[in-house]
């Protein structure tokens, strides 16, 4: 058995993992929190992405929207990370072999890479374009990538239950 | 005539037949439902936090609403259409499901509230949040959250 799979099995067999899995309500409750917090994480970052694409709020500067939205996005990320970790704890051994779960992890890595590139390149000169109704193409590309990747993550996440 | 008749008709409609017989139909439509929910939730959240005076205090609520209501209403339209398709797959199960009934009641309340009081408060609000705007935001957030929780519960009970 590969090391990673072995670790997943140990997590799966742990007391916490077993009690979440075998509890009558716990897994469903955590899963519901995980689903509804999508709005806090992805719903808020989508507003910023749509602004950079010039779809909404063209009259409001990009940095103002970023300042309003990013704390919400990060708190959403916190909720998603903790609830996601607990769900994984309960299902680690099954998740390991689940193709949808694997795709989701790859997409998550990519969606993390996206703002890293964005913030070290075009966002550094945001003062020059923050009030422009349409952002420069690099910013639009980042926004498009963000929306596409998050859509993929949500769909892959939902698909985990189907495998 | 009872509402049940409509659910039976939906189940027997071509849409219902397709949803019941298709292998990936339900999963695909459900995924779209979830994506539209994300956009609806995001726009509601931003608008309500503005009414609470927590974010974007320098932006006019009227301007924010003008743009975000477009996102909100188009996602709502997608949610309703995909929702009908999802119901058609298991119409009678939904009809008898308490969570589904709660969801429909809360949805009706949320939409009615949005088009009446909510809109009036947003359009008349200056830059500073008022007691009225805060109460409006709390009611709106509670109703939409209720729709989401009840919706999630349909599959659990």
Short description:
The complex is a heterodimer of chains A (163) and B (157). Helix content of chain A is 80%, strand content 0%. By secondary structure, chain A is mainly α.
Strand and helix map with partners:
The complex is a heterodimer of chains A (163) and B (157).
Chain A: H1 3-13, H2 15-22, H3 26-36, H4 38-52, H5 62-97, H6 99-120, H7 126-129, H8 137-159
Helix pairs in contact in A: 1-5, 2-5, 3-5, 4-5, 4-8, 6-8
Chain B: H1 4-12, H2 14-21, H3 25-51, H4 61-89, H5 91-95, H6 98-124, H7 131-154
Architecture overview:
- The complex is a heterodimer of chains A (163) and B (157).
- Chain A is mainly α.
- Chain A has one domain (3-162).
- Helices cover 80% and strands 0% of the residues of chain A.
- In chain A, helix 1 (3-13) packs across helix 5, helix 2 crosses helix 5 (62-97) and helix 4 packs antiparallel against helix 8.
- By secondary structure, chain B is an all-alpha fold.
- Chain B has one domain.
- Chain B contains 7 helices and no strands.
- Chain A binds chain B through residues 28, 32, 35-36, 38-40, 42-47, 50, 56-60, 64-65, 68-69, 72, 150-151, 154-155, 158-159, 162, and chain B through 27, 30-31, 34-35, 37-46, 49, 55-56, 58-59, 63-64, 67-68, 70-71, 145, 148-149, 152-153, 156.
Number of strands of chain B: 0
Summarize the helix and strand pattern of chain A as letters: HHHHHHHH
pLDDT averaged over residues of chain B: 95
- Helix-strand pattern of chain B, N to C? HHHHHHH
Helical segment count of chain B? 7
Distance between the termini of chain A: 21 Å
> Segments of chain A where pLDDT lies below 50 for 5+ residues?
none
Query: What is the number of helical segments of chain A per DSSP (H or I, 4+ residues)?
Result: 8
How can the largest sheet of chain B be summarized? none
Task: Report on the biggest sheet of chain A.
Answer: none
Shape of chain A: elongated
* Average predicted confidence as pLDDT of chain A: 94
Q: Give the termini separation of chain B.
A: 27 Å
Helix-strand makeup class of chain B: mainly alpha
Q: Rg of chain A from C-alpha positions?
A: 18 Å
Instruction: Indicate the proportion of strand residues of chain B.
Output: under 5%
